[in-house]
Amino acid sequence: MKRFLLAALAAAFMIPCPAPAVEYPTQPVTIIAGFNAGGTSDIVLRAMAPELEKELGQPVLIVNKGGNGGALAIGDLLTKKSNGYTVGLVSNAAFTLDTQLRKARYSMDDFTFLGSAGLTQQGFYSLPDKPWKDFKSLVEYAKQSGKELTFCSPDIMPKILLDVVSAKEGIKFRYVPTKSGGEAATNVLGGHTDFAYGGGIQTPYVLAGKMINLASSTRTPFVKFPDCPTLLSLGYPNTAFDTHYVFFVKKDTPAEICEKLSAAFAKVANLESIQDAILNKANLSPHILKAEEIMPFLKAQYDEYTELFSKNK
User: Fold this and answer.
1) What is the C-alpha separation between 112 and 77, in angstroms, rounded?
2) What are 150-160's pLDDT values in tens digits?
3) What CA–CA distance (Å, rounded) separates 93 from 158?
4) 309-158-218 Cα angle (round to 5)
5) How many angstroms separate the CA atoms of 161 and 73, rounded?
6) DSSP 127-186
7) Nearest CA to 62 among 92, 82, 89?
8) Taking residues 14-40, what's their average pLDDT?
9) Total Cβ atoms within 10 A of residue 144
C-alpha cells in the first residue's frame, strides 16, 4: 500500500503544470519612432504616451529615430530583445513601398502589428495665386504652356504618382527632393517650386487661405476638405497611397504581451482626447486600424504597388 501511495505521489509530481502567465510590463516601454520630433506622428505619439502609461502601469519613453523612411528605426528595433519593451512606430510605406524600391533587411512578415495612430492626409498643394485652382486645371496649364512644372517632397512616392499623370497626359514634372515636409512647405511659400506634396502640414495654411489643395492621394477624400478630388477620382489608376502610422514588435514576441499592447493601443487611440489630437493638432484622419486589420492591408497595398511599378517601368 505504501509503495502504491509513493508511486502515485511521484506520478503526481511528474504531471506538467501550465507555464505561469508572463508578467508584463515590469519596466518602462520604449517606442522607437521612425520620424523626427515635431512632425505629425510625433504630435500623436506624445499625446498618446501619458494615456498608455496609465494603461500599462509603466513609463512610456519615446525615441525619435528619423531617416530612410523609417528604416533606421526598424533596424534599431531588430537589435532589441523580443520581450515587448521596445515597440516601433513607422508609416506602412516602410513595409509596402520602401521594400520594393531598395534592398531591405526586413519584410512585413518579420513583425507583429499592434495598432495604428492615424491616417495621413497626403496630397498636392500650391499657393492660391498660381494660374491653376485645382489639379485638373494644373494639368491643363502644363499642357497649354508646355512648361515643366516643379514640385517638392521629402518622399519618392509623389514622383511615382506624377509619373502616372505624365504618362497619361503627356506633360512633364521635375522633382525637387526635400529633407522634410516643413522644408517642402517653405519652398512653396517662397515660390521656389510650383507645388508640393505633403501629409497634412499644408492643412493650417489651407485653412488660413495661404495655400490651396490640388488633389489627394488617399483612397477617400480628405476629412477636413471633402471637396478636394482624389487622384483616383480624376482617372489616374493605382494612385491610392493611404499611409497609416503603425505600431509593431518583433515577430517572436510572446502572444500574451502582443495582446496586452494591442488592447492598450486600441483603447488609447480611440479616446476622445486622442482622436481630437489626431484630427486637430496633427491634421490627420482619426481612422484607426485594428491590430488584425493591419497585415491584410499591408499585403493588399504591397500588391497594388507591385502592379503600379510593373505598369510604369
Assistant:
1) 12
2) 999 988 889 99
3) 13
4) 90
5) 26
6) -TTSS-SSHHHHHHHHHHH---EEEEESSSHHHHHHHHHHHHHT--EEEEE-SSHHHHHH
7) 89
8) 78
9) 10
The residues pairing with 113 across neighbouring beta strands, listed in sequence order, are 248
For every residue of 40-67, DSSP letters joined together read HHHHHHHHHHHHHHHHHSS-EEEEE---
Nearest to 60 by CA among 271, 265, 263, 290: 265
Identify the bridge partners of residue 30 per DSSP, sorted by sequence position.
Answer: 61, 86
Model confidence pTM above 0.90: no
The cell 512585413 sits on which residue? 108
Helices H / strands E in the chain, number of each? 12, 10
Rounded-to-integer distance, Cα 35 and Cα 2, Å: 70
Kindly give the pairing relationship between strand 195-198 and strand 149-153.
parallel
What is the CA angle 267-52-198, rounded to 5?
80
Could you tell me if 196 and 213 are in contact, meaning their C-beta atoms sit under 8 angstroms apart?
Answer: no
DSSP annotation of 222: -
> Within a 13 Å sphere around the CA of 5, how many CA atoms are in the beta-carbon half?
2
Sign of the dihedral defined by the CA atoms of residues 300, 301, 305, 308, in that order? positive
Cα 258 to Cα 260: distance, rounded to the nearest angstrom: 5
The continuous run of DSSP H or E covering 72 comes out as helix 71-78
The answer to whether 120 and 243 have CB atoms below 8 angstroms apart is: yes
DSSP 3-14: HHHHHHHHHHHH
Cα 244-209-120 angle, rounded to 5 deg: 0
Digit-coded pLDDT (tens) for 126-183: 999 999 999 999 999 999 999 999 999 988 889 999 999 999 999 999 999 998 888 9
Gap between the Cα atoms of 270 and 283, Å rounded: 16
